[in-house]
Amino acid sequence: MLTINNINKSYAGNHALSNVSLHIPEGICYGLVGPNGAGKSTLIKIIASVIHNFDGHVQFSNNKLQIGYVPQEISLEETVTAYDNLYFFGKLYGLYGKVLNRRANQVLSEIGLENRGKDKVLTFSGGMKRRLNIGCALMHKPRLIITDEPTVGIDPQSRQYIFQMIEQLKANGCTIIYASHYMEEIEQICDEAAFMDHGQIVENGPVESLLQKYAIPAVYVKGQHGLPDDIDQYGSVTSKDNGYLITTSNPLKVMEKLIDFSRMKDCRLERLELSKPSLEEVFFALTGTQLRD
Ligand SMILES: Nc1ncnc2c1ncn2[C@@H]1O[C@H](COP(=O)(O)OP(=O)(O)OP(=O)(O)O)[C@@H](O)[C@H]1O
C-alpha cells in the first residue's frame, strides 16, 4: 500500500524525523506509537501530503489512491450542523448533488449520529465531535485512512464505537494508519506497529511478534504460604499487592511448581494468574521511562 524511504524533516534546524523508512501493507491497521514529540504527527502529515517540504520518498502502490486524513485537533465548524460539516467536506472531495446528500446521510449513520444530523456541533459531546471528525474524512470513501490520536478525551463507549468503525473499514478492504499514545488501543486494533522515539523508528513489525520479542510473561501468586526456595532460578520475584510477581520465560513451569508447593504445604492459593505481556512493556523497553517534556 505504502512505502516510506529515508524521510528527514527538520523544523528550524531541529530534527523531527531522521531517516524514517517503513512499509505499510494493504488492508491492515498500522499503529504509530511513541512518546510526546516522537514525530508521529509529522510523519502522518507527510503521508497525508499536509507537509510537502521534507527529504525522502513516500511511494503509494496506486498513484490515484484516495486518502482520508483525520487530524489530531477537532477540525469542525461548530456553529453549523453535523450534516453541514459532512456536506462541506464532501464538496471539497468533489461530491455534489444527490450523491453528496446520500453520502452525508450514510456517513451520519456510520458514525452513529443519524438522529443528530440537524443539530449544531456546539451541542455535541467530545465523543460525538471525534466521530464526526472521522466522518468528514470518510465522505469520499478513501482506501487509506490516516488517524492521529482519534480517541483523545472521549468516553469508553465512543472509543469502542470508533474501534468498531475501524474494524468495519478494515473488513471493507481499507488500510488504516493509527497514531496513539495508548498502548492498549494499539494492542487491541492494530495488526502491525512502529515504535517511534526522537524522530526515529526504533522497532516495527507485527504486534504479536513485538510482544514475543520484548515482553516477558509473569505469574502472579497470592496465598497463605511463602514461595518454593528454588523459585528464583526460574525468574525474578517481586512483591505485589500482598502476593508475588514472578517474571519468567517459563510461566507454565512456575505455575506447576506453585501448585505442587501449595499442595505439599496443604494451603489454599487465593490467586494464581498468568499475566499477559503488554505492549506498554515493549514501549518502555524500547523508549525508556524518562519524561519527554
Ligand atoms: N510546526 C512545528 N514547528 C516547530 N517544531 C515542530 C512543529 N511541529 C512539530 N514540531 C516539533 O517536531 C517534533 C516532533 O513533533 P510531532 O508533533 O511530530 O510529534 P508527536 O509524536 O506527534 O507528538 P505528540 O504525541 O505530542 O503529538 C517535536 O520536537 C515538536 O516540538
Which secondary structure elements does this structure contain, and how are they paired or packed?
Layout: E1 2-11, E2 14-24, E3 29-33, H1 40-47, E4 55-60, E5 67-70, H2 82-92, H3 97-110, H4 126-138, E6 144-148, H5 156-171, E7 175-180, H6 183-189, E8 192-197, E9 200-206, H7 207-214, E10 218-223, E11 235-240, E12 243-248, H8 251-265, E13 269-275, H9 279-287
Parallel strand pairs: 3-7, 3-8, 5-6, 6-7
Antiparallel strand pairs: 1-2, 1-4, 8-9, 10-12, 10-13, 11-12
Helix pairs in contact: 2-3, 2-4, 4-5, 7-9
The site of adenosine-5'-triphosphate has 10 residues, from helix 1.
Protein name: ABC transporter ATP-binding protein
Keywords: ATP-binding, Nucleotide-binding
Pfam family, one: ABC_tran
How would you portray this structure in words?
This protein has 9 helices and 13 strands. With 293 residues, it is α/β, with parallel strands linked by helices. It has 2 domains: 2-212, P-loop containing nucleotide triphosphate hydrolases (Rossmann fold, 3-Layer(aba) Sandwich), CATH 3.40.50.300; 216-276, Alpha-Beta Plaits (2-Layer Sandwich). The chain is elongated and about 80 Å long. The relative contact order is 0.15. Adenosine-5'-triphosphate binds at residues 11, 16, 34, 36-42. Keywords: ATP-binding, Nucleotide-binding. InterPro entries: AAA+_ATPase, ABC_transporter-like_ATP-bd, ABC_transporter-like_CS, P-loop_NTPase. GO terms for molecular function: ATP binding; ATP hydrolysis activity. Residues 2-223 form the ABC transporter domain.
